[in-house]
Amino acid sequence: MSLVVFPFKDEPPALISQNIEIALRHDRVEEVWGIAEPDTGIAQDLRDSASRYSTYHSKPVALLEQERIGDLRPGKGDAMNTAIQRAAEQDRERVHFYDADITNFDAGWIEGAERAADRGYGVVRHRFPRAATDAMITWFITRPGLAMFFPGTILPRLDQPLGGEFLVTTPALHALAASADVRARSDWGIDTMVTYETATLGLGLYEHHVTDGKRHALYGSLADLETMAVECLDAVRSLHGRPPPLLNAKHASDSATPAPQDLKEMVAFDADGTAAILETPLTADETDIAGRLPIPLEQAAADEEAWGATLAHLLQEFRLDLPQWRALAFRLWVARVLAYTREVVPRGYDGAMSYLEGTIRGYETAGQSADR
Ligand code: DGY
Fold it and tell me: Are residues 315 and 225 in the same domain?
């Protein structure tokens, strides 16, 4: 039987409560946990509906406060790790994790993951189409970084390495609970660490395809994603030199289906509002480190080739603890996303997707040549 976990922060309580109820209704689910960031008050708002659902479905619903487990900014990683540690202590058989902001969560997510686990996969990740201007950290930081560090393996090919939607069986759960790197990653970098750990366990990894995509609130300016972008950059940087997944690791995936039309037309962030970020003057410290980029700042993010060199430099030099590095890396990523949005997105959804996939293959090839 399965436990379903929703880490949450500031998502609307009505949405969290709806997703909790959907999970409770599934006959493979025996218990649901919501893990709340401390002091947000949301757990309090949810308590009534949680106890009503729990009585109605005769299954426990626990609203737990996240503990301080990691070393970095306290955030999603502490929430995930709170659940991972407790579920491992209880030797749970299967644990599903879902980000609480999914607006199209339904039984199909749980069902798809359960069926793959029934077929012997120790880890099941959900994959889903996203808008051409969504997933910009995934496309310009995480997948390129995984491609450069682990070319030819499943890591760069995973569709949603930052996805918080996955299932782990007992051995994978124990491995995550025992990993010092996973425990330390208290911030947005947690998804990258979980992806790396679970992909290298050799327990079989299945990607279940959610045809309708993951629907969630989108962004205003890319400034909304600043903290996430730099923490995800730091997480992928920290994987340098780690052992790659086995080349013959069992990996399978549902075939992708065409993205829904409305998603193909969706705009995920405000490009005009974002452009102002590039007009902010650099500080003296930022100017100093920008002078050491392999490509001058103005061209450093102009196209996929320049970005490859720039990102490779960031993956060596970036320091999460230094404000100048956070600001410069964020600015470079914004410049890359805006250049792509201006030059590639107008080709249409399918053109943009095949361009993005092509960039990942290109970074893998570059990574393979660097390894020789
Ligand atoms: C990503 O890039 O995948 C993040 O979720 C932000 O959209």
Answer: no
